[in-house]
Amino acid sequence: MPKRTEKVGQAEQSAREPELSEYQRAMRDRLLAAPVVPAPAPWRRVAFTAVGGLLGVGFATHPDNGLDLVMVVSHDGHGLFDAVTGERIARDRDPDPEDSTPDLAPDLTCPGLGPIAGSRVHIAGLFGGGLHRTTEDSWTLEIVTPAWPNDRVLLSRDGGLPHAGPHGERWWHIFHSSCSEIRAAGFSPSGQTIAVATSSDISLWTRVAARQD
Q1: Entry pTM
Q2: 66 CB-near residues (< 8 Å, 6+ apart)
Q3: Residue 189 CB contacts under 8 Å (≥ 6 apart), including other chains
Q4: pLDDT (tens digit, 9 = 90+) per residue, 133-192?
Q5: Which residues, at least 6 apart from 115, have a Cβ–Cβ distance to it below 8 Å?
Q6: Backbone angles phi, psi at 12, to 5 degrees
C-alpha cells in the first residue's frame, strides 16, 4: 500500500505545470505593467457600444461605397454598424429562428440585413471562427492573458510577442476586458477596421478618415 501511495504522489507531481522561466516572468511582468492607451494614429476609436448577450461579430462590405460594415449577433437579435462612424444602421430584433445564431449553419454564417440583405456574413465568436489578426501593412492584433481570466488586446507593428521595445512606441495595450469574456478580436479583410467583441459590448476602431457631411 505505501508503494502505491508513492507512485500516485509522483504522478501528481509530474503533472504539475512547470515554473515560469525568468524570461517568461519578465514578459508577463511587462504585459501587466502596460496601461491601456489610445490606439496610435492613424487609428481612431469610433464605438464602444453595449450589446447584451453578444455571441459573435463579422465583417461585410457596403455595396454602395465599399466601406466596412460590422455585423453583431446577440441573444437580442442582429445588428449592423457603420465601421467609419460607429453608428448602428440596421437591426433585426427577431431573426428567423433557423438563422438566429451562426452555429445553426455549417459555415458559421448569419443572413445580412439592411444594405447587405440577401447575403450571408461569417460570424466569429462563441461558436468558433476567427477574424484576421494581421494586415498587409504589418499591423498585428493579439489577445493575451497575463493575469487570467482578464484578457488584454494588443495592437503592434513589431511583429507581435514578445514586444521587446517600449510600450507606446511599437506596441499598444488598447483594450482590457476585466468584466466580460472576449468573443472575438481582429481586423476586417480590408485592414481598415479593428473590432473587439466581448459578451457585453462591441468596440470599433477605424483608420478611414471621418466623412465630412
Answers
A1: 0.90
A2: none
A3: 59, 132
A4: 999 999 999 999 999 999 999 999 999 999 988 999 999 999 999 889 999 999 999 999
A5: 62, 63, 64, 69, 80, 89, 90
A6: -65, -40
SS3 69: strand
Asked if 78 and 95 touch (Cβ cutoff 8 Å), the reply is: yes
DSSP code of residue 179? S
Q: In this structure, which amino acid lies at residue 101?
A: T
The dihedral sign for the CA sequence 96, 101, 104, 105: positive
DSSP alpha helix (H) spans, 36-164: none
Residue 53, pLDDT > 70, answer yes
Return d(Cα 150, Cα 155) in angstroms, integer: 17
Task: Tell me whether strands 68-74 and 201-206 are parallel, antiparallel or unpaired.
Answer: unpaired
Q: Residue 88 is placed in which grid cell?
A: 448602428
**Residue 163: count of CB within 10 angstroms of its CB:** 22
Q: Order of strands across the sheet with 124-125?
A: 88-92, 77-82, 68-74, 54-61, 124-125
Looking at the chain, which runs of residues are DSSP E strands?
44-50, 54-61, 68-74, 77-82, 88-92, 109-111, 120-122, 124-125, 140-147, 150-156, 171-177, 182-187, 193-198, 201-206
For residue 29, report the phi and psi dihedrals to the nearest 5 degrees.
Answer: -60, -35
| CA gap 50, 46 in Å, rounded | 13
For residue 7, the 8-state DSSP code is H
